[in-house]
Amino acid sequence: MKNTRLQLLFLFLALIILSCKKEIEPILEPDYIMVEVDYGFDNYSKNIRKKTDPIIIKQRNIVLINVDKNGQTKINDNVTADSLIVTQLKKFIIPNHVNKQMPITTEKEFLYSGKVLVNKNLLVSAKFSEELDYKTYSKIRNKIYTAFNEVRNEFSIKTFNKNLVELIHSSKKIDSLKWNELKQIIPMRYSEITNKN
């Protein structure tokens, strides 16, 4: 499985490097490097691609999800029941500096949230079997997004006294700034590929 992980990551990195116009300078001691691009609809409609610095990704900050043709899901090689996918992913998304098996964390200071413990470049990477039916694929993919949104919602309620929907749909400028800050605190770095297994 370790070999498959490396192949997956090398493929992912190769695609990123090929898509970049600017050469990425070597960085000391990374396990993996990726380029983060927050490519929202506004950027898409204006055909703007933000240039960002390379991000160092350490192996323990990569959560690998493997879904076979029958829909059996493994998270970091552990078989996970459908009903537990969200719960298991949230364990990785919520910063945990005590457990050395969880992603590396760092403390950052934000304008509205103050000092916050954040994961240092967490990446969730899913590999789906090509033979998996679309309904199952969509259901599992939605669970991945749900895990991120539940963590964001819990943080928003605790820190801003507003749930995620209230924060996103608020017409107040300050809420828009808080939403942007929340996306920095709990960014959604997610990639997926399909394979023939």
Span of the ends, CA to CA = 13 Å
How are the strands of the largest sheet arranged?
5-4-3-8-9
* Computed Rg: 18 Å
- Total E-strand runs: 9
- The helix count comes to 6
Largest sheet: 5 strands, mixed
What are the secondary-structure elements, in order, as H or E? HEHEEEEHEEEHHHE
Arithmetic mean of pLDDT: 81
Secondary-structure-derived class = alpha/beta
In percent, how much strand structure appears in the residues?
15-25%
- Shape estimate: globular
Oligomer: single chain
Q: In which range does the helix fraction lie?
A: 40-55%
Low-confidence stretches: 21-45
What report would you give on this structure?
By secondary structure, this protein is α/β, with parallel strands linked by helices. It contains six helices and nine strands. A five-stranded mixed β-sheet has the order 5-4-3-8-9, sandwiched between helices. Strands 1-2 form a two-stranded antiparallel ribbon. The chain has a two-stranded antiparallel sheet with strand order 6-7. Strand 3 (62-67) and strand 4 (73-75) form a beta hairpin. Helix 3 (85-93) packs across helix 4.
